[in-house]
Design brief:
Blueprint lengths: L15 E3 L3 H8 L16 H21 L2 E5 L7 H6 L4 H22 L8 E5 L14 H16 L5 E7 L2 H14 L3 E5 L13 H12 L5 E5 L3 H10 L7 E6 L6 H6 L8 H14 L5 E4 L5 H16 L1
Parallel strand pairs: 1-2, 1-8, 2-3, 3-4, 4-5, 5-6, 6-7, 7-8
Helix pairs in contact: 2-4, 2-11, 4-5, 5-6, 6-7, 8-10, 10-11
Length: 317
């Protein structure tokens, strides 16, 4: 049975870390090939599963060392129908790999969780199309239909929740949220923003969050921001209103480059892990309710370690 599905521990005021840029770490640091950026493809053999296990264990150990919680998000960001089909996965194949990924998270939790460091498990989901491009937009009904199958896989597993990451428009966020509600599993919604703090569609972050809440009766457990550098959204949060209280987490990029610049880059920009931790601490010092902290593109265990060290005191202030 899911351990925390009915009482997500990150809804308390306790600090939680999660992992960094899984795909960029596997590609640039570990030298692994990920077709279509699909880390779930590594689940197909023991060598790939071992690489994923090492990655998660390394990050979970950082949380344990800092005495904080850790959100275990499965390597399933691309494990939905359209992306899976591009690399030869049927819907049944994807159902199996989504469940197997949660089983991997359960195994890691059983070995690493402590009383001081709870480790809820989330089935990670991504957008149907390119997160950086708002050219493919869905209405809520279409998005609900598309994401229902993957959510059903997670709902039938020991996942405590599902996390939707790098969404770039509200139609998909609303539909995905409704699918999670129908499956009776908690969901978090994470939008990506451009250098101006707005969604790729041009909509403001605050308006997007309020629109999703209005359309779903505030169904998301919390919202997050990911795949953008802290400097891209710090001013947006500073100017924000009550909607900022709905933000529960951050998964920022290491690089301050725009999405277009990152798409064109041929080398990884890992930024400065120490400065990254300090930027998080400054944000958390002003917004102490934000308590789930991880990384996205270009970040690795060093960034997460510095975030943990820098934010423990800022969050408690």
């Amino acid at each position: 049975m899911p351990k925390y599905r009915n009482r997500l521990p990150q809804l308390s005021d306790k600090l939680f870390l999660n992992d960094g840029g899984l795909e960029t770490t596997l590609i640039y640091d570990d030298g692994l090939e990920l077709p279509e950026f699909a880390s779930f493809h590594l689940m197909r053999n023991s060598a790939g599963r071992d690489a994923l296990t090492r990655y998660y264990e390394r990050h979970a150990a950082i949380a344990v060392a800092h005495g904080v919680g850790f959100l275990l998000e499965s390597p399933t960001w691309r494990a939905s129908a359209d992306w899976g089909a591009k690399i030869g996965y049927s819907t049944d194949d994807l159902d199996a790999v989504n469940r197997q990924a949660i089983e991997m998270m359960v195994d890691i939790r059983q070995r690493m969780e402590t009383d001081r460091t709870p480790m809820p498990i989330s089935g990670l989901m991504g957008p149907r199309a390119d997160a950086y491009s708002p050219e493919v937009l869905m209405g809520a009904a279409e998005a609900e239909a598309y994401h229902t199958r993957q959510i059903a896989s997670f709902a039938a597993s020991e996942a405590d929740m599902v996390s939707a990451a790098t969404l770039n428009h509200v139609g998909e966020a609303i539909g995905l949220t409704r699918a999670a509600v129908a499956a009776d599993i908690p969901v978090s919604v994470s939008f990506t923003v451009e250098t101006d703090g707005r969604l790729p569609t041009g909509q403001s972050l605050g308006d997007a969050i309020q629109e999703v809440d209005a359309a779903t009766d505030r169904a998301p457990a919390y919202f997050m921001i990911n795949c953008a550098h802290p400097t891209h959204f710090a001013d947006t949060l500073a100017r924000g209103g009550e909607w900022v209280k709905r933000l529960g987490g951050l998964q920022a990029n290491a690089s301050a480059k725009s999405h277009a610049e990152l798409d064109a880059a041929t080398e990884l920009d890992a930024g400065d892990p120490v400065a990254f931790g300090a930027e998080y601490a400054e944000l958390i010092g002003r917004h102490t309710h934000i308590n789930v902290l991880g990384g996205c593109c270009g970040t690795d265990h060093r960034h997460i370690d510095h975030v943990g060290a820098a934010c423990i005191h800022a969050h408690a202030a």
